[in-house]
User: Fold these one by one.
Assistant:
Number 1:
Amino acid sequence: MYKRLQNFNKSGKNSFFLWGVRQSGKSTLLKERYPHALLFDLLLGDVHRRLLNNPEQFREAVMASEPGIPVVVDEIQKLPQLLNEVHWLIENKKYQFILSGSTPRKIIKQGVNLLGGRALRYELLPLSYREIPDFDLMRALNHGLLPRHYDADDADQLISAYIGSYLEDEIIAETKIRNAETFSRFLDKAAFSNGEIINYTNIAADCGVSSPTIKEYFHILNETMIGYFLPSFQKKPKRRVVTSPKFYFFDVGIVNSLLKRKSIELGSVNFGFAFEHFIYHELKTYSVYSGKQYSISYWRTSSQFEVDFILGDHEVAVEVKGTDNVNTRHTKGLKAFADEYKVKKKIIVSRDPFIRNLENGITVMPWRDFLDKLWNGDII
């Protein structure tokens, strides 16, 4: 059983949206936190058809419910016109609504009522280190962190099915992408860019479409929460810096499947890529769940000095290395960044067995120590 850290503590009696990719655990979490709520599950065909044809029945059912209980609408993006009813019920009857869905993109693109600030917004991400008892790093890197996939012995088949039914079929249908074959090919090519600086031109050439089309596809992934842009840190640089963003998919298991990585082996090149992706996921998840919402960026100069993650306004610089023996050759990027900016903490996250303090104020941290400190609020 996982102890999910998204707790909605600040919501009080306010209505809120809960967004997150399919199978991230939204429905399970809401049933656990709101066991007595009035539930409308729009994945159920009969419920969807009834409310599609008779939306007023939604209002009638809510008003017939026991006073004071919250109302949960699962997969609200499938019937966004219900938000007009929700709006009226919040304004006139003071009901609390919890509205969950995989993405707000469809609602936003249709210009439908998003309740004009009357509802808070929360996000549920795949599992984090702190949420999993007896956390297994190699299982996480190979299976990914969607609950069903992390648990499964046949994760490869489940992930492949997930990509086919959700990332391809459902996202294509929801965003009305005209060329499904090209988008499917794009997903494979985008996976090769995971954690790398995006080169729209090269990917466009590989897919046989224009660069603007590839940019649109990346933005669709971002808007549907399938991936996130990692911007370049560019505050008053003394050196020439790379300005293009990087991109990370929401889950390392998805990338493994798209790249046909059969197994991540400890110490391999693929381990290094997957390990860095995992640390990014933890940094982002802590930023979201803690409410700190600090920015995450990367830094690279034209002369190839690089730091993987800059947290906040250069308060913390984090470099991720898959090695179990960090040495001075791994510190060049952090030293170069510290020459240009005042940095409170300079950290290399690795598989080293114990914490070490190097010259120039750089700290080597075993990944477990780093994540424990992160989730205890001791990193940023």
Note: The longest strand covers residues 306-311.
Number 2:
Amino acid sequence: MNIAFVGLGTMGAPMAMSLLRAGYRLTVHNRTRDREEPLAAAGAARAASPAEAAQGAEVIITCVSDTPDVREVVLGERGVIHGARRGAVVVDMSTISPAATRAMAERLAKREVGLVDAPVSGGSEGAERGTLAIMAGGSEAEVETVRPVLLAMGSTVTHVGPVGAGQVTKAINQTIIAGVYQSVAEGVALGLGAGLNLERVLQAIAGGAAASWVLDNRARFMIDNSYPLGFRLRLHKKDLDIALAEAAELGVSMPVAEMVSRVEEELIATGHGEKDVSALAIAVRRAAGMD
């Protein structure tokens, strides 16, 4: 199978590498062209534009930062839509607006090109290991067509509904982890303030009801007050705002998500947007007078 992959950032590059390791024929494109070089060295072909990458591909994967970027990559002057053949399936693995996803699906359908929205969870670690959780929206037939490709990058692929449902599911995911990150940061600050041995505290609570991926993988960042990149805080803020916009349209109140979004906005304004989401702990520590 011929696959095109557009967008080779922190998530996209290791995901594309997983496809090469799985034996797929891969053509790659990235706006910053030197990011293509490691993939080319591993056997991928390079394309000068998304449209060129899409030519001859049965599956075209996009993984870029935000809704305007996806629109440009898919529908722009040099976008995928101008190179995709009839019967191809675009798989957007970005995290963007559900409404924008549905609108793009309508445009692609006029060219007899399918769209599956398949955002992911698992961070850069999951992308590196090929263990992402993938939430897919689209027709049953198109999701099943791309399922083997998705399983080369993730450990689970769940068909959650029609086009756009994947993005709504990702919005739910980002809403839930927002509260978890914030509460882990607060718990860590409480333990530090009490002078406890936090390694023992983590050991004590990790096997109980407080267990979570964030507790296992990010609490130590918060203890050390060091936040190496897994998933950028500014991108989580973007995702959370998508969730809040969807909630507002549906009349759903999300006060915890609103509070975390405000905290993230303040952290971005003070220069912490490129740090991992666990940098939410900076605001908690600051409020407690620890820094």
Note: Strands lie at 2-6, 25-29, 45-46, 59-62, 89-92, 114-117, 120-121, 132-137, 154-161.
Number 3:
Amino acid sequence: MDHRFTVIVPVYNEQDNLERVEKELLAYLPVAKFPTKILFVNDGSKDNSQMYIESICQRNTDFHYLCFESNKGLSAAIKAGFDHADTELVGYMDADLQTSPQDFNLLLEHIGPYDLVTGVRSERKDSYVKNLSSKIANGIRRTFTNDGMDDTGCPLKVIKTEYAKRIPMFKGLHRFLPAMILLQEGKIIQVPVRHFPRIAGKANFGLWNRLLGPLMDCFAYLWMKKKYINYKISKKG
């Protein structure tokens, strides 16, 4: 089968969720808008996540994995997925299943004229503190980037791979993916997706990650925007 879409699933200490992840993804593959394969990226998990990942990949031919030697963070895991993708489209979702892979089809419907389609979580099923901190962080980021996106923390995105591979990732930049596509003069859009409560596992982001961390990353983004090199080849001989 010639796959057209790769779903990246970053994993850090999610052993209690991985069998559910397998079940949800297996339900999605037959109805996916394009032939799809899965790429787990184990970000140096300290639990038994790697054992579960290898078992899943052994029994499912469309499932593959990368395993880091040590924990490097979500941005590194996403970048590794981008670097190793060999399909024309790439997306990612979290292993906590607070978003559904079924909603990738909602995003894929729009990808033609756009270079990135991101989900925006409707009726979020998170705590008041988490929702408030996320809202503040998105407001700060939107002020710095002017990308017009309401929820860049939504872990459900689809990107044309040629654009994804050109993103110069650094720690924390996963929050700025739409803005980085705009730097490439690409087109972006957000689409409402469903949101679910976390059933198992533990969230890896606290108040620091959601507020102070993103604020510091905004300054890193502004530096990168000033220094960013973007070019297009008109002829080649």
Note: The chain has one domain: 5-227.
